[in-house]
Backbone:
């Protein structure tokens, strides 16, 4: 008896992702996720939304609060978001968003409110904003209703 592989039917163009959301924190995984998301949006002649989320101030160490300036954090994240947007091919319609709060909750909320048909995440945040994506991926996977693509740093 021989095993016969099932025939795979082509995906109809109507089911390609046309409204793609990518979470961005300037980490290696997020940069790779952005590249994949832009390519998917371009191939599907869709729209790309790049979202960064400014997390709440860290409350675990009271002494740390004296050195934490949320405006500096937000400015750095917005600068990274602008650079990310500049890397997207010019023929891809683009929206950039800055959320505030817990990253996973904000990404899930935006995916639902924006009717995104694909959410793309980098798996591990190890960039200048280390910690903003830590633990985010599993939470988004658990709560997001949209299809997801998770990109690990070093993939590709």
Residues:
């Amino acid at each position: 008896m021989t095993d016969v592989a099932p025939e795979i039917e082509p995906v109809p163009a109507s089911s390609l992702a046309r409204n793609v959301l990518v979470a961005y924190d300037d980490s290696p995984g997020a940069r790779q996720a952005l590249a994949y998301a832009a390519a998917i949006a371009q191939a599907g002649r869709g729209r790309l939304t790049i979202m960064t989320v400014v997390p709440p101030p860290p409350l675990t160490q009271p002494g740390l609060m004296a050195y934490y300036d949320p405006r500096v954090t937000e400015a750095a994240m917005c600068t990274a978001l602008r650079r990310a947007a500049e890397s997207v091919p010019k023929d891809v319609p683009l929206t950039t968003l800055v959320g505030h709060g817990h990253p996973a909750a904000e990404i899930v909320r935006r995916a639902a409110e924006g009717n995104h048909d694909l959410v793309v995440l980098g798996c591990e945040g190890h960039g200048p904003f280390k910690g903003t994506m830590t633990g985010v991926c599993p939470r988004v996977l658990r709560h997001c209703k949209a299809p997801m693509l998770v990109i690990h740093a070093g993939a590709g």
Q: What stands out?
A: The domain at 22-151 is CATH 3.40.50.620 (Rossmann fold).
